[in-house]
Amino acid sequence: MMGKKVDRKVSPENPPNLKIIQPGEQPSCLKPGFGFCRGCFGWQNMIDAALNGDPVWKTALIHCSETDLAVTLKQ
Fold first, then answer.
1. Residue 68: left if φ>0, alpha if ψ -120 to 50, beta else—which one?
2. Which residue pairs from 54-60 have beta carbons closer than 8 angstroms and sit at least 24 positions apart in sequence?
3. Count of alpha carbons within 13 Å of 69, Cβ hemisphere only?
4. What is the pLDDT of residue 63?
5. CA separation for the pair 25, 43 (Å, rounded)
6. DSSP letter string over the chain?
7. CA torsion sign, 66 to 39 to 5 to 56?
8. Residue 20: phi, psi to the nearest 5?
9. How much is the pTM?
């Protein structure tokens, strides 16, 4: 049985369960109409994976190379 996906929208201004490691601006991919940056899985996708318990992402440093914002999941 697959678990129910939790749809959580996270922003740098309201980062539940996230610890800011390096302050920075909101990632560009969160802006309306913006796609994905080259080589990035997408900020919201990485945050969702971490919050949903993915074993890799829940311990990863999630970093935006465009704005230098870096966060980790609070343990």
1. left
2. none
3. 18
4. 92
5. 12
6. -PPPPP----BTTB-TTEEEEE--PPPGGGSTT----TT---HHHHHHHHHTT-TTGGGS-EE-TTT--EEEE--
7. negative
8. -80, 120
9. 0.71
pLDDT tens-place string over residues 18-72: 899 999 998 888 888 887 777 788 888 999 999 899 999 999 999 998 899 999 9
Q: Is 41 left (phi over 0), alpha (psi -120 to 50) or beta?
A: alpha
Q: Which residues of 21-60 are buried (b: 16+ CB within 10 A; e: fewer)?
A: eeebeebebbeeeeeeeeebebbeebbbbbbeeeeebeee
